[in-house]
Amino acid sequence: MRGIVKYSATIAAVIMLSVGLSGCGTLKRDEPKTQISAEGKTVFEAGLQYVQIENRDVAGVANDHPLSISSESMRTVLESLYVSETVLFKERQTPLFSAYELQVLSNALSSGLARAESNEDVTFVMIGSHQATISKEQMTTSARVFYSGGRLNFIFGKVREIYRDKDPVTGQPIDRRTNPLLPGTRRVDSEPNIRVALDNGQSYYTDPETGKERTDWIILDIPTVLATMAERKAEGQDGFLSPELREDIARNKQETSNLREDMANIKEVLFEMSDKLDKLQKELDTMKSE
User: Fold this and answer.
1) Own/partner long-range contacts of 172-179 (Cβ < 8 Å, ≥24 apart)
2) Are 221 and 247 in the same domain?
3) 31-46 as b/e, with b when 16 or more CB fall inside 10 Å?
4) Considering the domain boundaries, does residue 220 fall inside one?
5) How far apart are alpha carbons 49 and 123 in whole angstroms?
6) What is the pTM of this model?
7) What is the count of structural domains for the chain?
8) pLDDT tens digits for 252-282?
9) Which of 46, 69, 209, 221 is such that its CA lies 20 to 30 A from the CA of 36?
């Protein structure tokens, strides 16, 4: 009887837990829920997270869709995206996407762009676990993705923004029907708190009407990005090196070269001084013997 009661309680607890999780609306951790739909407009969906094909937000020049890009190449492109953060008064570059987000997006974006039409974009909302100042936090990244003019475009709505179920001030649950997690739009700059750090083959979009650079809109030249990443992996480097870091490395190499040259010169001077001292010592010895 105790065994029956014990197992009944366990089953009830599991059911209650399942119901509770199903109502949370989002993943609580990077769980391997990565099944990609091969048809329809919704490519991936898990709670509040999704990758879907939808009509472009603003009429204009047609996208160059469908786009054929392998999930492997898409993953490499996504891995090339880093953000600059200030942690304990020090600036650092960290990958934009977590391993879970890379796994989902590399497959879902590749599939979505291959199925999208010229008047459609692919949008996504992802919630991944990222290291914050003290501990890991659930963070949201959302974007509108499309291929146009031979370039891959990302318009971000949110970039590594801390995800919360409840309002930090009132403690009340946040209603995502009135406070949705939205991708970026061509209409207006979302001005994310964290910006993507540019690398080879990457640039910010400049609004032709205002001449201002958008802080949420990144344009990528896929061949350049892939070639850069392949070169660095062949050299055993991390995928991302910021322009500042490359400059530091070059400067350090030059300083090391200069130091070696200076050391060689010092050795030569010391050798000449040693030779002169030997000659002086011999002259002194000759003078003393006389």
Assistant:
1) 176/25, 176/48
2) no
3) eeeeebbeeeeebbeb
4) yes
5) 11
6) 0.71
7) 2
8) 445 545 555 555 566 556 656 666 677 677 6
9) 221
